[in-house]
């Protein structure tokens, strides 16, 4: 019996979380769920968007399944997702990108993994608002040290990239490649322009790669070229490792290569804590309609089962998902050729179809 934190989330979160929970139960793996509330619902109930109880529960149980959370619009709200990753130091965001027959996509047989650094870069949240006295002072200081001119009406976002954080994410990517029998790691950067930040990332990647040279092939790619290569020759790639911002953009591009957000799972992993979640958001307009695709959340549960070393259960659940997708009958509207197809089923019905295929 495992004890796992469950964050049901906002919008469509509770529906996809319920679907994933029942699929896990059907694999036979016993989980005692500790449900905690974060996001919009937590804000209404307790005045806090990320209550301490949520962090305490994850720190205690070490593993969480998290449904999407709405970031309230308005001043002072940073994303709960970013805050959670920072508070728990979940430094690696892992997004497997896999083609499943039955899911509409321009490509077949894609199987790559995006490993995104989660703790620094332009996501560090160090920003200075245009017009504020401290921003004006900062601009003066930067001009003094750099000898360059910055427009007075600028806002400033800081991009820190360290040797230590680059080292641990690149090492993570290589270790992941070894563990899951992958052949190549590609480090993605823009070091030709950002020499002192992406430059560190690239130099560190080259150093770490030497330690794995006899087992894993190492390659480098500039991020803009990578974007083009991925839409032209996605089969050339295996594991990609990227700083935070490029990782964010490229992982959505990759989700698009295999059929979009409805089928894209993810994991945020730290040294001894892991939070599993779909790539998609809380899609508020579909909340409570039993309409959206539960696949991304169920595939996130597959990643969680693998992390818990329940390999057979993970395999059985993934195979069941594959069968339902390939048949294309009991699937949600977004997986039908015509989105108005009256034979589309609801979120829970698709989960039930998956359960019926579990061996
Ligand atoms: P979104 O992913 O919620 O929705 C965009 C569109 O994608 C939806 O309108 C829908 O058409 C489609 N879609 C998303 N998930 C789907 C599914 N499971 N099945 C079928 N179609 C699906 O993105 P958004 O509208 O930019 O964001 C809505 C809210 O979600 C925001 O508050 C945002 O901050 C939050 N968000 C949360 C997370 C997270 O919790 N990890 C991630 C992204 C966005």
**Which structural category do the helix and sheet elements fall into?**
alpha/beta
**SS strand fraction:** 15-25%
- The largest beta-sheet arranges its strands as 2-1-3-12-11-4-5-10-8-9
**End-to-end gap:** 20 Å
Q: What is the share of helical residues? A: 40-55%
Count the strands? 12
Task: Choose one word for the global shape.
Answer: globular
Q: Which H/E pattern describes the elements?
A: EHEHHEHEEEHEHEHEHEHEEHHH
Ranges where pLDDT stays below 50 over 5 or more residues in a row are: none
In this structure, how is the largest beta sheet organized?
Answer: 10 strands, mixed
Bound molecules: nicotinamide-adenine-dinucleotide
> Tally the helices: what do you get?
12
Cα Rg: 21 Å
Q: For the residues shown, what is the average pLDDT?
A: 95
Describe the structure.
With 359 residues, this protein is an alpha/beta fold. Helix content is 42%, strand content 16%. It is built from twelve helices and twelve strands. Helix 1 (13-27) links the parallel strand 1 and strand 2. Helix 10 (295-307) packs antiparallel against helix 11 (311-327). The chain is globular. The mean pLDDT is 95. Nicotinamide-adenine-dinucleotide is lined by residues 68-71, 79, 81, 261-262, 277, 280-283, 285, 292-293, 296, 334.
